[in-house]
Amino acid sequence: MAQLWGGRFTKETDRLVYDFNASIAFDRKFFRQDIEGSIAHVVMLAKQGILTKEEKDVILKGLTGIRRDVEEGRLQITEEYEDIHSFVEANLIERVGDAGKKLHTGRSRNDQVALDMRLYIRIEVLVADELLKELLETLLSLMEEHTDTYMPGFTHMQKAQPVTLAHHLGAYFEMFKRDRSRLKDIYHRMNYCPLGAGALAGTTYPLDRNYTASLLGFEGPTLNSMDSVSDRDYVIEFLSALSTVMMHLSRFCEEIIIWNSDEYRFVEIDDAYSTGSSIMPQKKNPDIAELIRGKTGRVYGALVSILTTMKGLPLAYNKDMQEDKELTFDAIDTVKGCLSLFTGMIRTMKFRRDVMERSAMRGFTNATDAADYLVGRGVPFRDAHGIIGRLVLYCIDKQCGIEDLSIEELQAISPAFAEDVYEAVSLKTCVEKRLTVGAPGKAAMQEVIAMEKAYLSNDKGMSPGENEPLVKNGDGE
Ligand code: ARG
Question: Which residues participate in catalysis according to the annotation?
């Protein structure tokens, strides 16, 4: 049991209490961020004359040495320490002696952990954004390929009107594009540095918080020290954005599972992304799509957990906030895994144009267009709707489509029908005449595709050079 505190205690901590309280099993995950924050803190302390240049150099050498040794496997982060902050500080003191004891000057673990968590989340926002971008690129190339692939569009899971596969995929393109814009908002809102807030009330040392913030690539320092140590809004916002990503993935997976079924056969998931059954030799299951759909609950769980943890917390820091980490880390890893797998799955999936097109021809997906045809021939829409309704009933009885009826049969129901009706209700016409912005007609779709292409190629990402460490391992040695 290695602790940073103990002076005012007369008894050893109970072992169970120690284990219950410790966070190193999971906060070790932001060990790099912890060191990076300490480096910035020390550089600032030296600039302000709070540490000498010699002390700064000794501490930086120690910190980068710890980082290198952990990265290269020479130093293990063990559960002997309470948390990652204690691990780093204790190791530093062991390495460089008394100078190491000055690292924590003008700092508390409260602002330190707030910083580490921000640094960790900030990178993960960028990683999630990059994965979403790759998914959008994959979707866009499929959209370009399938502007002529007709398929039924559904409402209430009933065939409604024909669309194209490009159009259907384009709906998801919009969803994931909004997800990226949410991440961008979060990044900018969270990009302020809490370090220097101290335990809750700032510090009497003349810290230059603007400088620390700029060293770490933040827009500036946070403006209220109590809020700085007790704010986890950015965790909530990020988990909320990730939950929305999962909700979108899950809807898409649900459709793929349906499309991949023997009843639909719109798609065939590649062998590499399917699994078999231990008993039924014929099976090829869409397990990956199902698992992504299933893992959505897990990510929602993390969001609800942190919202619940935060709801009753008085200002400022409370230990409850240590609970912000495990489920958040798990949710982030889950979403990243799901995004990569999903992109791979749709990239390799086979879309069966012929089956989709045949399906679009059935189910009276041209009934609205047939009514619109009558409107064009002077029949008021409400009457046209009634006529086509009767026509559909007639066809159901005959087990055929509207386009299969003879002109005599059509005219027996309404004299307004003429020979050009067949052309007007053909699948091609039904799709291609839909040319308003955002509609499936090829020309309209191509305009949107061009806009999305420009959106992707103008995208420069959020913050290049994000991963460059402030001081490289081995510097100053
Ligand atoms: N492990 C703690 C956390 O995750 C670090 C901050 C501890 N501060 C304190 N005063 N106990 O929140």
Answer: 156, 277
Separation in Å, CA 65 to CA 13, 29, 242, 471 = 31, 18, 35, 11
**84 pocket-lining for ligand 1 (C-beta < 6 Å):** no
Question: Tens place of pLDDT for every residue, the chain, 477 residues?
Answer: 667 777 778 788 888 999 999 999 999 999 999 999 999 999 999 999 999 999 999 999 999 999 999 999 999 999 999 999 999 999 999 999 999 999 999 999 999 999 999 999 999 999 999 999 999 999 999 999 999 999 999 999 999 999 999 999 999 999 999 999 999 999 999 999 999 999 999 999 999 999 999 999 999 999 999 999 999 999 999 999 999 999 999 999 999 999 999 999 999 999 999 887 777 778 789 999 999 999 999 999 999 999 999 999 999 999 999 999 999 999 999 999 999 999 999 999 999 999 999 999 999 999 999 999 999 999 999 999 999 999 999 999 999 999 999 999 999 999 999 999 999 999 999 999 999 999 999 999 999 999 999 999 998 767 644 557 788 876 654
User: What is the rounded CA–CA span in Å between residue 383 and residue 402?
Assistant: 17
Domain 6-102 has CATH 1.10.275.10: yes
Look up the pTM and report it: 0.94
3-state SS assignment for residue 407: helix
Domain ranges of the chain: 6-102, 115-147+165-358, 361-455
CA angle 303, 27, 305 (to 5 degrees): 15
- Tell me which residue has its CA closest to atom 4 in ligand 1: 322
- Fold of domain 115-147+165-358: Fumarase C; Chain A, domain 2 (1.20.200)
Q: How far is residue 266's CA from residue 264's CA, in Å, rounded to a whole number?
A: 5
Cα 381 to ligand 1 centroid, rounded to whole Å: 68
What is the CATH class of 361-455?
mainly alpha
Identify which of 110, 232, 310, 326 to mutate to test ligand 1's pocket (most ligand atoms within 8 A of the CB): 110
Question: How many Å lie between the centroid of ligand 1 and the Cα of residue 339?
Answer: 32
Q: Which of 79, 81, 109, 232 best tests ligand 1's pocket when mutated (most atoms within 8 Å of CB)?
A: 109
Q: Compute the distance between CA of residue 177 and CA of residue 132 in angstroms, rounded to an integer.
A: 8
